[in-house]
Amino acid sequence: MSKITFYGGALSVTGANYLIETKISKVVVDVGMIQGCSTCSAANHEPFFYDVSTVDAVFITHAHIDHLGRLPKFIKEGFNGPVYTSEPTAALAPIMLEDAHGIDEEEAERRGKEPMYSSKDLEKTIEYLRPKKYNERFRVTQDIDARLQDAGHILGSTIFEIWIKNGKSQETKLVFSGDLGNASMPLMNPPAKIDNADYIFVESVYGDRIHENIAQSRQAVTQAIKETVARRGVLMVPTFALERTQELLFELNNLVENNLVPRVPVFLDSPLAIKATEVYRRFSHYFNKKAYGQILAGDKLFEFPLLESALSSEQSKQINNVPSPKVVIAGSGMSTAGRILHHEKRYLSDSKSELLIIGYQANGTLGRQILDGAREVKIHGMKVPVRAHIKSIGGYSAHADQPAITSFDFSIIPLKSH
Hints:
single chain; 6-stranded parallel sheet; globular
């Protein structure tokens, strides 16, 4: 008889961590960081609720920090086994973990505490990664097999099929969806269809929501650029470094090359997003047929006229010297940190400029304050009046919405009766 215990990612969105115990094996799905609350930092530093040294293997569904972020801590506490994930996730993991570690070190120094893990723990973590291709079943332990399928959420995101052997010819199949993708997004494939399962564990982040149509979102981006250019202002786009940035660059590539928007300087001002985009280039064969077809036809999807990447802080500062109109894409997606804050501090008071919000804004974040109509905000200790135009787009979510989740849950996987 198997046992499955939820230690995160249930009754909350973040901190995904699921322990599967059989008679002879223990495996874990995801070791995510807890995010979005005042007590999250303290919770992340607490020991795991079980002895990690007894775990035989780990499955990582994708490279977002709320699914991957505590993996070095897991190894620090004694895990000494393989970490199975997709090839793109294995490539994205180092840059995502390095960024998270840097933030954790800064916070630890500010609070006078030890970081969650050391640089050596991080280096050791990368050595444990065991990349796997999609759609290939493999042996994990004496009584567990697994297979990766495309979840369509971000590059390399994975649905894990896990078979537990109950006897010579009997087995129980578990399916962990990870985060399911939004099938209308321009780069990723839709989530893979799964044959059947005994038990399924499906995300429900947007289980109460229906996304805006992607064509409407594309038109809204087009309009935002045109209007801001006409006002000779600055279009600021706070964005998440992984997936949202790449989707937006893909859209801008098509808009610019088809002369659907005026050609003005576009700056990608996020070191993490720049590094993640390089991984997207390396694994472009994971894109859907349409996007990959454009690449085969010679189109460089993340390059277009007047696009510049600001990797160093000096390059970022130079953006200020470029006269308006211009477009600045920078992290973080909720305006909680990162280089977007410097641009917001400079241009939110400018009535010719615009802040285009293309992602969810959690309660308590600066982005949410601005979205809710704040007339003045505080950035780096300075009071900044909000005179810029504020617009929000909801169609670029990388998560499945209610119809997609229920379709996956009840139509794609016919549950066996017990």
